[in-house]
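Example (one chain per record):
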Amino acid sequence: MRLAPGRWDHWVRYQDFGEETPRRVGLRNGGGEVVRIGRGEPIVLLPGLAGGWRLLAPLARQLATRHEVILLGLRGDQALVPSRVGESLASDAAEVAAVIGALRLERPTVFGVSFGGAVALELAVENPGLIGALVVMGAEARFRAGVGATIARRVLERFPLPSDNRFINQFFNLLHGGRPESAALAEFVVGRCWETDQAVMAARLRALEAFDVADRLWRIDVPTLVLAGSRDVIVAPPRQRALAEAIAGARFELLDGAGHVGFLTHRARVARHVGRLIREAHRSLC
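Predicted structure:
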């Protein structure tokens, strides 16, 4: 993975990371970008369908007060590296595994949100000895494409759209599970999401339609946390609770008032839950 040096100043700004200076990492496997921030036990943070690692910057800043956070940009984010034809969640998971190996991370916590949650699940079931703890938010074991997601995918596939397209922007606003808490937050989410090319969004929606780890969840044998927003209209909380119940020893936590982007609106609470999981994982090794 490699971040284009010419774009670094444009991407990394103090409103994303505060006073902390992120550290870019150049790898040579041709994938997306890698950004490291903070010090401590490592957390590998995987982004969702759109927005890339920059959408996760506020959460990373929160987590980085106690941990080192490694943000991975998936192939296709910000259109720096084109998405391969026929790419699947399995190939994304394999790429994440390769980065963990290249960075010589020893059983890090892997935290995936939305599409990244599905990637994290695929990684965990296929590489059970690679990670030390697992956090999933806004995902389930088998994706169920609703009418809205199907329509969005078809629109993205067939019609070139401007970044201020009202239809797709309304789809992004559904991520809040209701009226956004502020216009600035809504603008932040929409702006970041449009940094991902619409063809990449469509390809990821197709990959999700084929995603299914339900019969492999028994392979996960690390401390696992499933976080869900009570107002998540993309992946309903009962479906996320079912995911937790299907993983041995997993804990389910419901974030009251949070939508699909609860990792932004409730990031302090998310960080507390993640910190607790990592402490539990350490105790289990003693």
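Caption: The longest helix spans residues 267-285.
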